[in-house]
Amino acid sequence: MGKSNLLIELYSNLSTTGALTFSSKALVKKMVTQVDLKDANLIVELGGGDGSITQGIINQMGPQTKLLVFEINSSFCEEMRKQFDNPNVQIINDSADQIENYLNGEKVDFILSSLPFSFISKEITDSILSQSRSVLNQGGAFIQICYSYLLKNLFKKYFPEVNVSFTLKNLPPAFVMVCQS
Hints:
The termini are far apart. It is built from seven helices and seven strands. The chain has one domain: Vaccinia Virus protein VP39 (Rossmann fold). It is globular, with a radius of gyration of 15 Å. The protein has a seven-stranded mixed sheet. By secondary structure, the protein is an alpha/beta fold. α4 links the parallel β1 and β2. Pfam families: Methyltransf_25.
């Protein structure tokens, strides 16, 4: 599936993708450089989409790092499985609110998310963020890209520390929120 077909898939599912375009290289770089991924044992990505952020994570993670990528769109999953034929990368075609079911009790060093929380029900949002907080290692971080600064208040309900940065080099411009407990 080419980029144009991926864009058609993106626009056909705006309620689940919540994006007008895929993440820019500048946004991906800002997101993956917020923490040091090289020494991580386990990283989770929520909302793999076209694999832009996935590629950024893979470029920054160490050779021992395992990456689980959650994506509910089966077409995106199929493309990512082709793109990331890597034994350390597992593409999971399931909702992010099922994260605990795939960890087998393991703790996660970092969770990177592009989920459109503005479009997700309160119950599912609560499940995703509660599970994310509970599965993070001490010193771990939940890193979220979003298009509204007001979402900081949502993340503060689950994480006591939320640091925000911003990039204009994305359409639309975006915030990166680093949440720690």
